[in-house]
Amino acid sequence: MKEGKRPVIRIFFIYTFLLLTLSAFAIGIWLFNDIKRDRLKDLNYSSAVIKRYYELSFRQWSNTLLSLGQQLAEVKGENAQVRRIDLARKANSNYKELLAFGFADTTGQVLVFSEANVGDSLPHLMLSENSKRSFLKAKQVDNISIGEAYYFPNVVDWILPIRVPIRDSLNNLIALNTTALQYNSLNQELLSFGFDSTYRIHLINKDFNTTQLYYPLPVKDYVALLRKEASIYTELSENEIADVKYYNGFNTFENHASFLIKADLIGLNHELVVSVNQNVLWAEMIPLTWIMLAIYILLSAILWITYFYTDKKEKQYFLNIEKEKNFSSNIIDSSPIIILGLDKNYDCSFINPAGTVLLEYQKDQIKKSNLASILFPNLSQDKIEIFWNTGLINNKDTYTGTLLTSSGQEKSINWQLVKRHVSDEIEILFFGIDETDKKIAQKQLIEREANLKAIFESTQSLIALFDKDKMLVEFNQPFAQYAKEVENITLTKGMDIFAAMNSTLVEEWKRFQDRALNGEKFQETVEYPTDTDTLYFLFSYNPIYQNGEVTGSSLFIEDITLLKQAQAKLERYTENLEEIVKERTEALEEKNVELKKGNDELAKALENLKTTQQQLLKAEKMASLGVLAAGIGHEINNPLNFIQNGLSALIQELNNSKLNKEIENLKPYIDIINDGVNRARKIVKSLSHFSRQQMSMDEKCDLYEIIDNCLEILKNNLKHKVSVSKEYQEGNAIVKGNEGRLHQAFLNILSNAEQAIEKSGNIRIIIKQKGDILEVSIMDDGSGISEENLSKIGDPFFTTKDPGKGTGLGLFITNSIIEEHNGEVSVKSEINKGTTFTIRFH
Questions:
Q1: Omega of the bond prior to 287 within 30 degrees of 0, cis?
Q2: Cys-Cys link to 275, which of 170, 260, 353, 496 (CB 3.0-4.6 A)?
Q3: Whole-prediction pTM value?
Q4: Nearest to 624 by CA among 574, 583, 578, 582
Q5: CB contact at 8 A, 331 and 53
Q6: 167 and 174 Cβ atoms separated by less than 8 Å
Q7: Under 8 Å between Cβ of 493 and 474
Q8: C-alpha 454: how far from its chain's center?
């Protein structure tokens, strides 16, 4: 009751005795409406407090689950599961009201559960009808989804599941974070508000049309309630009293008429219904009814009884209001969000501990004179004037802006403004959530994507990313240009590029995609015929992983047409050389028939032929290789330098940004580029050594480097077949001579060793100094050389290989080169055990 109504009632009973009967009816109606109005105001205020509290609480839980989910998604590498469980348990310890934290993939399989240990069997959210519908709904929303209430006897009784979807920068769903509220915890929270015990608080999930909460109701009785429709109120009619909109209705669960206040929870698709039994109001009227009946008996009794009763009612009313304030203060003090109140003069009337810590101001330090500079430092003066006049910002009760702390730090805050009436005066409440870290993370993400895009577009390689459905997700400009020029396709993100192609190679490329999506990392050379020529491309496929699951593939394409053309020319030169050797061999055989008559004449002719063959091989082979290797090295080194410089710039930029976690996501791209550049450099370098034309014998030749270059040239033949071990002595292994010639000699020996191993085997290389002699041993465990052929392997044109696969000049040339360098070659071999070549330089 209001203070000014007491004298009105007293005067009414003193001066209107003659109209006693009429007055009794008037007072009865008035009192009932007054009780009803006060009840509805209190009911409306309770509804507003609960609504705001749940909206802010679920938003805070949503941010917490989103942040935790992103952290869990980024945890990779060794002991990832242990670290994820540790993160979930730490988060659980900070939010006692939440039952546990879980982390599930997009199929519903729970990957992390804070109450489980590594190796424990975890549930699948799609296997239970209790969790299936809420899980599917959570996959469709952008922020938070509250599932249906269900009974969970293994942990607690009734729980309320909460799911938050985790999405990547492209808004693709990558996981869901999940937790749950215990009904006992919810009941305790509502109990702490100190609401009238006759009130009924009903929370309805509009997505599933199910009851989420009915307070006060024992948990054991929820089964009966959940069997009913969520809307348990019928015969609803809308009314309004004292600016409070309410409904008359019938509670079918408790079977009584009720007054209801209904409100929708913003962003949660839930409806809140706070109601009171209408009989409660009649119960409050019963004492007054008896008093009014006594008016007919004794005026004085009616007067004093009525007076003392209303006085007692007033005291009780304000006592209840004070209790509600105390309960609200407890909630405000424990809340992690900023709660700040302004009185009618716009001075700070209270601020909770979380606000004091963030603003670094005490309550008495915040006045109207400095309020705008603290809460709205970036707000224009005209908008501040509107706030002084209306209590609103931009004529809205929500505002996101910058807050300035006492130490000068700027914080990004999302404000919710609420007006409330206290003793006929308006007080403004500010509810604020600190979103500073979220803004910083968003800015860093945008910068990282911009840097990656710049590197992505700077390379001349063709790069494309595909999702697990083989749809084009991303591509660079060179890839788009090739698609336009070669296939006349204009690329767009999300398209099925294979469906748009007319090439006969489409099915083969689809198989490449399937291999990558199955987790295989590989390279394939592809011939691409066109109307004018045949192009050659090196396809490098890599699977893309997220949370240990392949979610797509990356494709890097290098145009190696020029390299293939150079190799073809080299093959043609080699074929011509073998034809020349064949012609010379036939001529020699004819000569041998004619020269059998005299040994002296035969020896002289043979000597001349050896000299001719040696000079011919040197001139033909080295000239061809020199021209080709020089051209290849010049053409390939330029783009290699460009790629290497671009990669160095990318790594430097990433290191400067200090985004250690994000660097992990870029490793597949960086590793692919590094592997390709290093491989190409080694090949070019090895070819340049092998094809040197200089004939000087005064070069310092490093045997370590020469053998390593030869192994690089033979790398494709050796991999997956031969294991090479090197045992080099400490210090240098230098021989004075011609580096190109020694490359040719050791390449012949190593090539023979590789060819002697049919399926798999080992090659062992030992270099050591014995006094003045530098000794090189090359051992293989291949097929070996028979004793009858061992003495012939140094003869020209002797070979045990199939026709067309060897000329018989390799070891003959090798012996000649080693002898030129003041060295000697010895061979030991056993059939099926292997061969050892020993070269000694004096």
A1: no
A2: 260
A3: 0.35
A4: 574
A5: yes
A6: yes
A7: yes
A8: 20
